[in-house]
Specification:
Blueprint (H helix, E strand, L loop, with lengths): L19 E3 L11 E8 L4 H15 L4 H21 L4 E8 L4 E7 L22 H8 L2 E7 L2 E8 L13 E4 L2
Parallel strand pairs: 5-7
Antiparallel strand pairs: 1-2, 2-3, 3-4, 4-6, 5-6
Length: about 180
């Protein structure tokens, strides 16, 4: 699966400042495709700001309430992962919609911290570590691409579809 790169020239918002949002733009040659991009510093403030960006975009695009909720959950979990684990200075969220799908791409420029082992007794009742499980519950498709320049996670949502038979993991592509 090929995941397109984000636009090269994007300003990064300072902490506490509204994210730098580029409203929907038709893609060349793809009628009905809309895109919205927001980039901001990878701080705890980015999580609610980028969730709000996703919800505002869903409303602007007249997506239904289920799509709005799915976007909010996916963006929240993926951005929180960047903030907690990547050491990236910034985080970018690119939303793309077509007639049938909504794609969320979250990109960072960090190096992921090693994941700590679960403590004894942290099985099903653990308070953390369920983010990608939540993302997969909404996703028709999910891919994680790790490179020396950061990580990009792409999640495809198909509003109104049942994903109970969806795959049990995000495809993980890593390169040095």
């Amino acid at each position: 699966m090929s995941i397109p790169a984000f636009p090269a020239a994007v300003r990064t918002a300072s902490p506490g400042v509204s994210p730098n949002a580029i409203p929907h733009q038709p893609a060349p040659g793809l009628h009905g495709t809309r895109r919205a991009l927001s980039v901001m510093a990878a701080t705890v403030e980015a999580v609610p700001s980028l969730r709000r960006f996703a919800r505002d975009t869903a409303r602007r695009w007249n997506l239904d309430d289920r799509a709005d909720e799915a976007l909010a959950v996916v963006v929240t979990e993926l951005v929180a992962n960047v903030v907690r684990h990547s050491r990236s200075p910034d985080v970018a969220v690119l939303l793309t919609t077509t007639d049938r799908t909504v794609t969320v791409q979250v990109h960072d420029r960090g190096r992921w911290r090693p994941r700590r082992s679960r403590l004894p007794g942290e099985g099903a009742d653990a308070c953390c570590g369920r983010g990608l499980d939540l993302v997969r519950a909404y996703a028709a498709d999910c891919a994680v691409v790790r490179t020396a320049h950061g990580t990009r996670v792409a999640v495809t949502l198909t509003p109104g579809a049942d994903h109970s038979a969806a795959g049990d993991s995000c495809a993980d592509y890593s390169s040095g």
